[in-house]
Design brief:
With 317 residues, the chain is α/β, with parallel strands linked by helices. It has helices at residues 5-33, 59-77, 89-98, 108-117, 170-182, 201-210, 220-229, 255-261, 265-274, 281-289, 304-312, and strands spanning 48-53, 80-83, 103-106, 122-127, 135-140, 162-164, 196-197, 215-219, 237-242, 250-253, 295-296. Strands 2-1-3-10-4-11 form a 6-stranded mixed beta sheet. The protein has a 5-stranded mixed beta sheet with strand order 7-6-8-5-9. The relative contact order is 0.16.
Length: 317
């Protein structure tokens, strides 16, 4: 007996409804099996750890250093890692605060500024040399400024044209200004004209060598590197004084890093950096780029002096 058109349409509707129910049940089962955020959930393919560093040196040099660190971390942690250069010190602090940067290699001062502005930030590691870092004061040979044996003798810089590095640099501004103050020199009143701010340690050397400024202060590590590579004319620039030591550069991870990569990720970051081994050729090459033999743990207490001096100079409010 032939089927009526009405029965055929009804049967088709039943099949459609059953298919939709089956599909819905299938989706529901999938979501329960791997809920978002669970250990079984697939990794976000676009999740990238964004690292950066204060722009204290030649940009090409910084890129080489930090891209090498990005490669190491990607291999060690199994995540995508991108080095994001920044235009200035203030930008590194601001982008860290907003979460646009996950981890930054800050100087002592910018590290304190970033940590105070970003609740939940975690100190990850510092280089071995940052446990007792130093600045160096240099002068143009034509200035007649003589080498000094103690901070008090920096008084000879009075009345000279002087440049710092970046305004927010620990080794190129904060600590040098502190030592100048100990020698009785006010950077606002006692130089020949306003103090300069070169923007980076390399530029400080170049400006003093060119005679644009008669003296300046910078990161001792950069000074040593430039001398070793023969990229500073020691007939035109002389070393005046190496400063007393203080704590400086360190890696800091932001609170959103844990939110994006999961609990315990900052510990993994710290381990990936502090486990760098000078006996491994590839890792030794990375450590050499940072001017270190190893990275070590650090703590907030190491930067109390930096914070106190920063507040005194109104660089931290």
């Amino acid at each position: 007996m032939p089927t009526s058109p009405r029965r055929t349409r009804a049967a088709a509707l039943v099949l459609i409804v059953l298919s939709l129910v089956a599909a819905a049940c299938g989706d529901s089962t999938s979501k329960v099996a791997a809920p978002a955020g669970s250990a079984a959930a697939p990794a976000d393919p676009d999740r990238t750890l964004k690292i950066s560093a204060i722009p204290d040196q030649d940009p090409a040099k910084l890129t080489t250093i930090n891209q090498s660190m990005a490669t190491h971390l990607a291999a060690k942690l199994g995540v995508k890692v991108e080095f994001v250069p920044v235009t200035d010190y203030a930008a590194s602090v601001s982008l860290f605060k907003t979460g646009d940067l996950d981890m930054v290699f800050f100087g002592g001062l910018t590290g304190v500024q970033a940590r105070l502005q970003t609740p939940g930030a975690v100190l990850v590691a510092q280089r071995d040399i940052d446990d007792a870092f130093q600045s160096v004061f240099i002068a143009s040979a034509a200035s007649g400024i003589q080498p000094a044996t103690d901070v008090g003798q920096l008084a000879s810089l009075k009345g000279k044209r002087f440049t710092f590095g970046s305004e927010s640099s620990t080794s190129g501004r904060l600590m040098p200004e502190y030592f100048l103050d100990q020698a009785g020199i006010s950077s606002e009143k006692d130089f020949n004209g306003p103090a300069g701010y070169s923007g980076s340690h390399d530029k400080t050397i170049d400006l003093v060598q060119a005679g644009t400024y008669e003296a300046g202060a910078l990161n001792l590590q950069v000074w040593k590197t430039r001398k070793d590579k023969g990229t500073v004319d020691l007939t035109k620039v002389t070393e005046v004084l190496t400063s007393p030591s203080y704590h400086d550069y360190h890696w800091i991870a932001g609170p959103k890093t844990t939110q994006r990569f999961g609990a315990g990720f900052t510990d993994k970051l710290s381990s990936a950096i502090t486990s760098l081994d000078v006996n491994d050729p590839d890792q030794a090459a990375l450590l050499t780029l940072y001017g270190a033999k190893r990275f070590i743990p650090t703590k907030v207490e190491n930067y109390v002096e930096i914070e106190q001096i920063g507040r005194k100079l109104k660089l931290i409010t």
